[in-house]
Each structure stands twice: as structure tokens, then as C-alpha cells.
Amino acid sequence: MNKGWWYGVGLLVGLIILILGQMPDERIHLVVCDVGQGDAILLIKGSNQVLVDGGPSQEKILTCLEKYLPFYDRRIELIVLTNTDHDHLAGLIPVIERYEVIQFVTADGVRASSTLTKLREILIEQQIPVTGVERGQKLRVGRVGEESKIELEVVWPRETNREYVAVFSQQMEKNMREQILGASAKEGKVNERSVVLLLLEDNRKILLMGDAGDQTEKTLLELGGLPDIDILKVGHHGSKYASTLPFLERIKPELAIISVGKGNRYGHPTQETLERLERVGTEIARTDQEGIIEVNF
């Protein structure tokens, strides 16, 4: 047999090994991508995937997806944009260009920017509708009864202004869109309109806080019903205005993951936040120190 035949056999064997190594399993995989000063969280179970935010870097989010998604799977079942700040939004643009996106949801934490304009154009071009979500809604990926389904509960915001969400649509006229974005900018507090999600998986509870801070935490405590949390994705990258002591004492997280850029100009995570987490006995993991953080169960 000639060398070409053996070369072909070697390629085939290598391809089979690669495919088998990337075969999905029925565990939930929580992947906090290392995207610098921003947020991008990937949830994987079986062949279902949910991406929460995309971070500020197009290259870093694509690198993370290429590492954790099978090369033959070019579909993301759900994208959640927690708010429209650049450090959550920008990386979603190349993701939508390269992957088939089935659902895209967000809330009314909108802020005008060239990045938002570009994202809107891509969503319209790919014919991906944007849906607003609010407290109490369930986001389900996968069929009912399917072992690999993923279910998330929307914890915040309490209510979503659908008119604000409509800025993503093709039907809204430019003048109206500019008026809404202007009104949103005057209201401020975009972080406190972040989508907050709770993942329930085999009695494990994961709370993803987006950029939500002390005001949101106070209201959630007043509303009640917060369970003890196994894993907390810390709000607003460890800002001192998030992860308040009363909130942490109520949810009692076993592990807190902070998505943050090395040497960032904001000083995140702040010493105040780290001390509060330590005070309630929470283990801390940080992307600026460990890179990508993956938890499987």
C-alpha cells in the first residue's frame, strides 16, 4: 500500500477521534468565557446551547465557542443579552454572523451606541426576532421530557417595556427609535435593568446576575422567594455596588464566579466585594486569574 493510502487512513482515524471527543453528554456544562472586562457565559447540555452575553471582544468569544462547541454544530438555541453595554453586546455580532441562532431575548436595558446599531442590522439581516423577557418567565431550550433540555427562570426585571425592546425591530422608524434610546439614556440605570437568570439543574441552582447591582438586589430581597444558590455569577464584575452583604447572606452561594478583565481601569473586583464574599464563606473564582472557568455537573 502506498503512503497516500496510509495518510488517508490516518486522517479518517483522526477525524473519528475528534468527533468522538466532542460528542455531547447529558451533564450541564457552565462555561464562563474569558473575554476580558465583560460577560459571556455558555451553558451546554447535550446538543443544546445557551449563550448569555458575548463580551467586548469578537476574537475571544469565538475562541471560547470553538473550544467548547463541536465543530459540526453551528447552531445556538438561545442567546440572552442581559443589557446593551458594549462589554456584553459586541461579541454577539460575529456569533450571529457565524452561527444559526434560534431565539434571541433581552429586556429594556437599552443604550444607544454604534455597536447596538450594528447588532440590530445583523439581527434584521439574519431575520432573528428579538423578544423581551421579564420576571417569572421560563426560557426552555429542548423538547419537553428531553434529557438534554435547559430551563432558565427570569428573575429580573420585574416588568419589561416592550416599546424599548422594539428598537431592535425593522418596523420601528428611525426617529421613534432615537426618541426611545434618548429616553432610556435620560432614565439611566441600565445596569439595574439587566436580565437576571436562575438555572435549576438536578437540584443545583445557578444565579446569573448580569450587571445588576444593589438596587436590584434590594428589590429581590423584598419580593422574597430567593433560594440558596450553589453558583453565583457575581453582578457587575465585582463592583462595590453589587453583591451586598444582605443579599449574599440570603442566597449563601458556595461558589462565586467573577467575570473580569486583568488590570481593568475600574478596579474590579473591588476589595469590598471580595471581603463580603469571604465573610459568607463563599469560594471565589476569577477569569482574570484563571482564564476560562468551567463547572460541570
TrEMBL record:
The keyword Ion transport does not apply. InterPro entries: ComA-like_MBL (IPR035681), Competence_DNA_uptake (IPR052159), Metallo-B-lactamas (IPR001279), RibonucZ/Hydroxyglut_hydro (IPR036866). It comes from the Bacteria. Residues 37-262 form the Metallo-beta-lactamase domain. The chain crosses the membrane at residues 6-23. Keywords: Membrane, Transmembrane, Transmembrane helix. It holds the Pfam family Lactamase_B. This is Metallo-beta-lactamase domain-containing protein. It comes from Candidatus Collierbacteria bacterium RIFOXYA2_FULL_46_10.
